[in-house]
Amino acid sequence: MQIEVLKSKIHRVNVTEANLNYVGSITIDETLMDAANLIENEKVQVLDMNNGERFETYVIKGKKDSGVICLNGPAARKVQVGDIVVIISYATMDFEEAKHFKPSIIFPENNKI
Questions:
Q1: Mean pLDDT in consecutive groups of 10 residues from the start of the chain, 113 residues
Q2: Which of helix, strand or coil describes residue 1?
Q3: Is 90 a catalytic residue?
Q4: DSSP assignment of 49-100, as one string?
Q5: Cα angle at 92 between 87 and 97, to 5 degrees?
Q6: Which domains does the chain have, with CATH numbers?
Q7: Distances (CA, A) of 12 to 22, 30, 86
Q8: Catalytic pick from 22, 58, 66, 90?
Q9: Annotated catalytic, 8?
Q10: What are the residues facing 17 on neighbouring strands?
């Protein structure tokens, strides 16, 4: 049996930009991506702590150590600059493997590790 489990989580970062005139996605500082074990184009769920929005998009690599968290395209309408968001990805794996899997969870301060 295959189940979906938490793979990666960036807990409580600030939205630094919202760019409506872009194709779509979330730009994340490369340092945060690496620490959370996220890769470019990976599907993520974004949870906005300020307004309760939950939506899915994909990751674009942002400049290393920039602290950037930018919602692009339609997702830019779901957030405000300064909102606090949680970014989550999941993985599908065998049930027995999932029992021992340890997700990558980070708790940045001011969008820095």
A1: 98 97 92 98 98 97 98 96 98 98 98 95
A2: coil
A3: no
A4: TTT--EEEEEEEEEPTTS--EEEEGGGGGG--TT-EEEEEEEEEEEHHHHHH
A5: 115
A6: 2-92 (2.40.40.20)
A7: 24, 16, 5
A8: 58
A9: no
A10: 70
